[in-house]
Specification:
Number of strands: 19
Number of domains: 4
Structural class: alpha/beta
CATH class of the largest domain: Alpha Beta
CATH topology of the largest domain: 2-enoyl-CoA Hydratase, Chain A, domain 1
Radius of gyration: 29 Å
CATH superfamily of the largest domain: 2-enoyl-CoA Hydratase, Chain A, domain 1
Bound molecules: ligand LX6MKDVF, 1,4-dihydronicotinamide adenine dinucleotide
Distance between the termini: 47 Å
CATH architecture of the largest domain: Alpha-Beta Complex
Strand order of the largest sheet: 12-11-10-13-14-15-16-17
Strand content: 5-15%
Largest sheet: 8 strands, mixed
Amino acid sequence: MAQYSRVSGSVGLITLQNPPVNALSAAVRQGIVDTVKRALGDPEVKAVVIRGQNGVFCGGADIKEFGTNMSGPHLVPMIHAIEAANKPVVAAIEGIALGGGLELALGCHYRVAHSKARLGLPEVTLGLLPAAGGTQRLPRLIGVPAALDLITKGRHITAAEALQLGVVDQVTGHGTVDAAVKFALSVAGKPLDARRISTYPCPRTSDLDALFEGVMQKVRQSARGAIAPIACVQAVRAAATLPYLQGMEREKELMATLFTSGQARALQYSFFAQRAVGRWSTPSGARWDTSKPRPVHIAAVIGLGTMGRGIAVALAQAGLSVIAVETQEKQLMEAKQAVSGMLERGAKRRGVAPALDKVSYSHDIKAVADADLVIEAVFEDMALKRTVFRQLSAVCKPGTVLCTNTSGLDVEHLASQTRNPQLVVGMHFFAPAHVMKLLEVVYGPQSSPQAVATAMQLGKKMGKVSVAVGNCRGFVGNRMLKPYLEQAFFLLEEGATPELVDRALEEFGFPMGVFKMSDLSGLDVGWRVRKADGLAEPVGASGQPARIRQGQRYSPLGDLLCEQGRFGQKTGRGWYQYDKSGGQVASSDPWLHSFLEGYRAMHGLVARRIDLQEVLERCLYALINEGFRILEDGIVAGPEDIDIIYVFGYGWPRHRGGPMFYASMVGLERVLERLEHHHKAHPDVPHLQPCSLLRRLVSSGSPPVHRWREVLKKLNSQL
Ligand SMILES: CC(C)(COP(=O)(O)OP(=O)(O)OC[C@H]1O[C@@H](n2cnc3c(N)ncnc32)[C@H](O)[C@@H]1OP(=O)(O)O)[C@@H](O)C(=O)NCCC(=O)NCCSC(=O)CC(=O)CCCCCCCCCCCCC(=O)O
Ligand SMILES: NC(=O)C1=CN([C@@H]2O[C@H](COP(=O)(O)OP(=O)(O)OC[C@H]3O[C@@H](n4cnc5c(N)ncnc54)[C@H](O)[C@@H]3O)[C@@H](O)[C@H]2O)C=CC1
């Protein structure tokens, strides 16, 4: 809806009303058309101001309407009518002007913004482009390079930057609507021809072809297969090379392709999934809206290695006081230097003062006595972690929430070492912890709603996308990673190379393939875990056949590389070779290829031709199958949790929605049929055996992913 009133005698004030972000639903669009007509037809009205209710201008098109039978007036003619008006129309921008909201403002003759407002054309993040004239008006207003930057990245800008770029005409720190009304009165009666952006020529840019070629190359590289950023460049190119109306035709044509694409569906699913995980709940009845978090002012971190340092930085940057603990003086000093450096670099990037005084350092665990919450990040060693939790339980004040950053050890077992197991949860950060957005908050059967809510709230304060997950080996992300890695190893045994496997996964859209990723994170990490699990014994020592462990097919390839001291980038050799220890540019390693040949010969394996499709099916469907098991076990509340974990923590291409969304797009019957096929070929690999939930979903008609929660509930109640 849009409300109309008259203010200051001669200004027609139009207020968009569609909480919470005044999205341009059919009713709002109709409201705008009607009220603009009324204002323009009223002889007493000399100028018009458009604002949004509750201090929010407009969040753009109503995304919930996409994919439905969109009725109501179209945005393009609506905005065109505003621009063509013979009375000045001023946009009063408070809060946000995003997507269609900014396009509406660009159709107005003037824009007045509050200093705290954010503006942008984020359509590309939803798999779309700004198709209400945004790709044609913005370059005409601010020039091609700046418009390309905003439109292809979907970046939000501040009012100050908008003023500098010329997107807005005035910025105010006080009442935006009053300022806009005053502005409107000051321009009433003045000629408007020079204020209609669509009539502007696109500012000249030298060597346009080279500019677009360069941008297109960069965009293709970073898009990892996403089509919307490329269409955005094409649309801006139309603005730079064609008259406005022809440019609009091109914008429409490109949008038509994007609008119905699977990528747009995936990205819009991801938008809502990210919000859905914020409405978390646990089987014991803890919920986002009823469980009250404890206030956390002082946090402590135990163990200042790779993870602890990043966690301390993220906590300090979120404004908390941090007590950082390391047992050894030397490590403590090194950590202090590293944390200070990270804080300084981060502050420089953000143009703020570094929060150095927020962090205090100690080698005595008793220093954490006053902390409201402690995050343990010592070595992945259960015996050590047990000791630390017993100590924490003894020294912390009553009510302190105790968290572990373990990658997959039993949180419940750690809780049982303390006096208050209900106050123990996992806070599983991802490396580097001050950069990566994902946080898995792991609850055990005894974790109290308050402890879960406290960790979730803290994650939010730290700017993380937090997902509540149940306690199981590897939680969600790492549990699903296991069958994925396992398939990659098996594929090498059967004839593939690391280059082939990585190529398939990178072409799918991962930033790096599984072998490059292993080299980056260190092959020794998994080796240590496999040793602790009794899997990575030296070949032959177990008395079992080398490729069978604990009754299942096992590939010792990773262990054999580690025995050679090949730990990946850190040692300059792994699945690839690097120019030096710590080098980052991977190149194919002839040693590795002859090693693989020798290994196959030793085990009587005959290399066969493996294609990219098989690599994808084996690796991704095994991972997805584990996702179904996780859903079946009730470790997460719904498929959105898994998808968000994979998109934000594991580089799953966002334009493919996440593994469970992807499975739904591929078709559950197809995933089931291919898993059955691969399991038949490899009956000794349990991870390829289709999970019973997948079978049950297929039997119930393969519902789309947004209906799985409901179907899951129904299926579970029938058991
Ligand atoms: C706005 C935010 C920055 C707010 O953030 P925050 O305060 O953190 O709150 P949130 O929790 O994110 O949001 C609160 C609540 O609001 C919901 N919401 C937010 N934005 C929208 C929206 N735009 N639409 C609907 N709902 C929205 C959100 O989901 C939350 O609710 P909940 O899920 O219930 O919890 C932040 O929310 C944000 O960033 N929002 C997105 C802003 C954005 O991306 N805007 C751009 C939208 S796309 C757009 O505007 C496109 C266009 O304008 C083009 C118009 C053309 C369309 C015409 C189509 C014609 C196609 C032709 C093809 C024909 C094909 C054929 O031939 O058939
Ligand atoms: N490295 C990674 O990518 C990730 C690791 N994790 C988990 O985070 C934890 C830490 O891992 P990293 O930081 O990689 O290990 P790390 O080896 O880099 O650091 C561990 C630190 O703990 C310190 N430490 C050991 N005992 C201590 C004690 N009793 N008191 C105080 N400090 C002590 C060590 O001196 C060392 O600095 C592990 O549980 C790991 O599984 C979780 C996510 C990602």
